[in-house]
Design brief:
Layout lengths: L1 H9 L1 H19 L3 H13 L1 H10 L10 H30 L4 H30 L3 H19 L4 H22 L8 E9 L2 E3 L6 E3 L3 E10 L5 E15 L2 E17 L4 E9 L4 E12 L13 E10 L2 H4 L1
Parallel strand pairs: 3-9
Antiparallel strand pairs: 1-2, 1-4, 4-7, 5-6, 5-8, 8-9
Helix pairs in contact: 2-3, 2-6, 3-8, 4-5, 4-6, 5-6, 5-8
Keywords: Membrane, Transmembrane, Transmembrane helix
Protein name: DUF1616 domain-containing protein
Length: 321
């Protein structure tokens, strides 16, 4: 019983790894901003996989005591190993799910770390049982290697310091790029659909209408902001003038406005029926999406998202007579 307790005490780093995995996954799940999710994401993705890989590979060797120099070198080795393992795990997620999802990668990495820590714990236990009778004989040989071990692990060399600083900068930069959405990255999906044979599809939009004719387009919104968001959708019918790349709205009519709230991963859809009240070749159905309340005069410049469908409107025969 005492040997098991001693082994668990010696492997407290692996027990800490298991706790860090649980804390990291929970923090990533409940974090509402990139700043909150960044530290646990960096730890889980770019440190722990390499650490358990290295400890498993060297589980049957005698471990050096924890010093500042060994902590730095083990951290550098952990990051390097993680950068080697992470792409392989990403490929597994992509092949299994057909797409590289963030939570698929987080789940696989967490499982890899936990299984790796458990396997390392087993190898360490076997090593302890196999070498307990030889420790006294190994004491003399270890004394002869103390000086070299001290040179390798007891002092922080300039090369190790430069490596550690470079790794920290690289991981911080990569972590920010992965965890914090860049400006313009689509975090909320705004889309327009039409109904074809009882199914909603993202094609077959009306391209030609007659003045006074009705048409229907379904507006859809999906929240991927990792937090609950209050949205407002404003739909308009616009007649525009196109001059090169410049588009000027010459006339517009408000169709409808909707306010709703969506949690992470939730979607909202509404079938919008409208009449073609403008005539001309440059008429469009426009949808503006706002987070919160819209201004009195919604435009594409002020909207969070804007999408539209172009069509021509021919004058009615009654109007031409």
């Amino acid at each position: 019983m005492s040997s098991i307790a001693d082994e668990l005490f010696e492997s407290r780093d692996l027990l800490a790894v298991g706790g860090l995995v649980a804390v990291s996954v929970v923090a990533i799940a409940i974090g509402t901003t990139g700043v909150v999710r960044l530290p646990p994401a960096v730890l889980l993705l770019f440190v722990l996989p390499g650490y358990v890989t290295a400890t498993f590979a060297y589980a049957e060797r005698e471990r050096e005591p924890w010093t500042f120099a060994t902590v730095v070198e083990r951290f550098a080795l952990s990051v390097g190993g993680s950068l080697a393992v992470l792409p392989l795990l990403a490929i597994v997620v992509y092949l299994a799910a057909g797409a590289l999802s963030a939570w698929g990668l987080v789940g696989l990495v967490a499982g890899y770390v936990v299984v790796g820590a458990a396997a390392t714990l087993v190898r360490r236990a076997r090593r302890s049982g196999g070498v307990s009778g030889h420790r006294s004989g190994a004491a003399g040989s270890r004394a002869g290697t103390t000086a070299s071990s001290r040179r390798l692990f007891g002092e922080l060399t300039p090369t190790t310091a430069i490596l550690a600083v470079s790794v920290v900068i690289a991981v911080a930069t990569l972590g920010v790029a992965v965890t914090v959405p860049a400006d313009g990255e689509t975090a909320t999906d705004l889309h327009l659909l039409t109904e074809q044979d009882g199914r909603l599809v993202a094609n077959e939009y009306p391209d030609s209408l007659t003045e006074g004719e009705s048409a229907a387009i379904t507006v859809g919104v999906t929240n991927d902001e990792h937090r609950t968001v209050e949205y407002t959708v404003v739909t308009e019918l616009q007649r525009v003038q196109v001059d090169g790349r410049s588009v000027v709205v010459t006339d517009k009519r408000r169709i409808d406005q909707y306010a709703f709230e969506l949690g992470q991963g939730e979607s909202w859809r509404e079938s919008e029926e409208f009449q073609a009240s403008f005539t001309g070749e440059n008429v469009r159905f426009v949808t503006h999406l706002y987070r919160g309340d819209p201004p009195e005069n919604p435009t594409a410049d002020t909207a969070y998202r804007t999408t539209y469908v172009w069509f021509d409107v021919q004058p009615s025969s009654a109007g031409g007579e």
